[in-house]
């Protein structure tokens, strides 16, 4: 069996990033103190820098941009289906009746 990767809460990740940004220690020292890898802390710092408060949405959670994108894709599919139904109906009603 493979080794399962530990999961950390959003608050833990934010505190780790804040500790690095405000503390006088290196990433390696902070990561060692917290019991995480320095690559994980680097990744968290990068994600927090790019997304700010929306960083670390968690499993199954999406950022507001991803949620909006998903909603628009659903709406687009519904509109596409409605258009196709109307096209079919127009072709039926446009046929001459004997």
From TrEMBL:
The keyword Coiled coil applies. The keyword Coiled coil applies. Signal peptide: none annotated. Residues 62-89 form a coiled coil. It comes from the Bacteria. Keywords: Coiled coil. InterPro entries: Homeodomain-like_sf (IPR009057), RD_transcriptional_regulator (IPR051839), Transposase_8 (IPR002514). PANTHER family: PROTEIN DISTAL ANTENNA. This is Transposase. It comes from Dictyobacter formicarum.
